[in-house]
Amino acid sequence: MALLLMAAAALAEPARYQSYTLAVEPWGILDTDRGVGPDFIRFLAEQAGFVVDARAWPYLRVIDGMRSGENAINLGIPTPERERYGIAICTIGSLKVSLLYRRAGAKHPNAASFAGMSIGELRGSQTLGVFDRAVPHKTVMINDMSQGVRMLAAGRLDATVCVRPGCGNVLDQAGIEAEQVGEWLLSEQPLAIYVSRESALSRDTATMLRLRLACDSYAGRQEVRRLLAPYR
Question: What is the tens place of the pLDDT at every residue in 45-54?
Answer without folding.
Answer: 999 999 999 9
